[in-house]
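Hi W.,

Here's what went into the run:
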Amino acid sequence: MDDKGARMNKSDETLIVGGGYSGVLLGNILAEKGFRPIIFDSFYRGGEIEIFSKLEVLREYYREFIEEYETLLPRVQILKTTVVEVEKGEKWRVKTLDGEIQEYDVVFICTGCYDSRSLTCKIFGTRPAGIFTLQNALGLISRGYRIGKNVLLYGKDRILEIVGEMLKKQRYDCQIVESKEIEVFGVERVEGIKLDGEIFRCDTLVYFCGREEFNPLGLEGTKAGNINSRTYDYKEVRKDVLRVSKGVDWV
Amino acid sequence: MDTMDNFDVTIIGAGVTGCFIAKELSKYKLKVLVVEREPTQAMGPTKGCSGIIHAFQLPFNSLKGKLCLEGNRLMDEEAKELGFRFKRVGLILVARSILADLIAKLIRFYFSRYVEVEYLSKEEIRKLEPNVGKIKGGLFFPSGGVVNPVEMTFKARRFAEINGVEFRFERKVVEIKNGTRNGRRKGEYEIVLESCEGDKETEIISSNFIINCAGLYADEIAAMVGDRFEITPGKGSHIVFEDKSFSSHLMAAIPLIPERRTKGGGSLVTIDGNLIWGPNLVDIKDREDRSVKKEEVDGLIRKHSKIFSKLPEKAISVYAGVRAIVGKDFIINSPVKNFINVAGIQSPGLTAAPAIAKLVLRMLKDMGLELKKKEEVKTEVTPKTLKTPKTLKTETKSNKGDLICHCRLVYSEEIEEVIEEGARTLDDIKHLTGATMECGRCLPDVLGLMDRKGVKLRKDTCNSYIIWKD
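Here's what came out:
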C-alpha cells in the first residue's frame, strides 16, 4: 500500500475522492490539523452509512458511525463531481467527468468497496431474478422495496445475523446458511438452492463472501478507509482512516 | 371479426433472426407484425449466445456454412446502417502439436477458397497474443468479429419500428387457423395470441404470411400448421472474466479429432473487451435449463487454459444459453402455403441473421408477396455508439443527470433514453448502456430509475420480477 507517499505542507491543495464515512472522517482529521481539504463526490454525500441509517436494526447497529458521520459532515466542503483520472506527477493532475483538469499536491482515494460477485462466492446453477449481493439487497430495502418473501442469506459474517434480524422484523421468512459452494435453481425466479446435497426452498438469495476495492477507473492516490479494509465492520474502517492519517508525513 | 387486425406478414419471435427479417421487410410497403412472448427482444437463445461473428462455419457447402459467410460479409454494412458496435478482432486457431501444425498448413489452402486466412508462426502469434502457451503455429482469420447480441438485435428492432413494423410483446401464439371464415377470407391465416401475464387474454389477428422464428419453440409453432420436426436443446455455458487485457482475439485450439456438432467454443472476447471462455455443449431435456454447473466451469477452465501460459484473473460471472438444434443444419423451408420456418438456428445464427433475412425475402417474393420499396426509409438520426473501455477515460461530456454506473460512466439520462427507445428489462438496460455490467453496485439505482419511468422491474422474461409482488 502506497500510503507513505503523502507528504503534506499546510499550504498544500488536498483532494479527497469520495464523501462517504471514510472521506468525511479523513477530511475532518486533516481540517483539525490545519489543512483545508476538498472532497469530490458524485452525489455530494452518501456512502453506505446513509443506507444503514434508513434501515431498522442496522440503524442501531451502526448508530455510533451514523452519528459520527452526521456530526462531521457539515465541517467539510463537498462538491458534486466525478473524478475520472488522477495522474501522478510533481503535482497530481485530476481530471473530472466534465473535462476539467485541476492540480493538487495530495490526493486521497476514499471510494469504498463493493460486495464480491456470485462466481467469486462459488454460486453455481441458474441466474434467475431474486439473487442479490448483500449490498444491493440493503440498497433496495432502504428504498422501500420488498426483495422477496422467503430469503436465504448465504455466507458467514456478523453482518448477516444483523440483517437476518432486520428481515425478520420486516416479516420476511429468513434463514442463514454457510457452505463452500451452492447451486441455485429456478427459471424465472429463484426456487431454491442445493447445498451439500440438501435442498433449501427459497424465492430470494442474498449472498456475502467478502468485499472488493471499488476503484473502477483505477484512480491513483493514497487509499484510505473501506477501500482498504473492505468490510461491514466500521470499527475496522475507522481504524484504517486513522492509520492512514497517522502515516502521512507532516512537513 | 371485421375489426380484426390484418397483416401482410407476421413474424413469430423477436430474436436476432426475427428482428433482422422485420428490419428487411420494413423497407417495403407492407404491414408487418412481430409477436414475441417475452417483454422485449433477444431474451431467448440470442441473449445466451457468445456474441461471435464467425469467420466461417463447416461444412462450407451446408446452408449454415453459406449463410455464415454471407452474413459475415454483410456485417460491416449492417452495423453502420443500424448503429450497433461491431469489431473484427480476428480468429486465431492455434496448433498445439506438430501434427496440428501440419493440419493447419494443409487445410489453409482448402479454407482459402472460401475465407481470408493466413498461416502464422508461433512468434507471430505470440506478438498478437503475449499470453499464449506452448504452440507450434496457427491460422489467422481476420474476418472473425464480435458484437453484443442484445444490442445488435435491439438496433434491428428499432430500425423496423421506426419504419412502421408493429411489435407486440408478451404475447404467445397459441393457435394458427385457416383464415377462411364464413366463406370470407382476409388473410391466409388467423393467429390466436394469448397475453403472458394475468388473465391470459386472447386476441386474434389475421395474416397472409407467417414466418416462424420462434427459436426454442419453433417446433410447437410448426406443429400448429401440421409440420413436424424435433428440437434438441443444447446448452452452452460461458465464464466471463474481469480481465480486459489478457487476450484480444478469438482463440481456439485446432482439434485433432473433429468435435461433435459444435466448434467446441474457445477463448473469446466481448465487444467491451472482457475475456469469455465457452461455450460448451451439454444435452438437456428442459429447454429452460440455463444452469451452469461447477463441473462445467472446471471443464471450461481446464480446456481453454491449455492455450495459454497463465490463467486469467478474476472470473466474475457465468451464463448459459440454449441452442435450438434441429439436426445438423438450419431449417429454412416452407412446409405449407405462405408459411416459412426459420428454425434450428444454432451457431452461427447470429452471424447468418442478415443473410437469413435476405433469403427469407427472396422466398416471400417467390411465394407471391408483392415487394414494393418504400420511397423513404428512416434511420436513427444519430446512431449512438456505446462506450468502450478505451474511450471511457478520455471521454468528457456535459452533465446528463446523475451518474448511475461508475464502472462504465453511465448517466441517468442515458438509461432513460434507452427506455424511451423501447428497453423493457434490466438485461436490456445492462446490455444497451453497460450499467450493472461490471461490479453491479448500481443495481438499486438502475431499478429505481426503471420504476420512476414506469417500467416493470423484471430481469429478462415475462415473470422474472426482481421486486416481490405479493
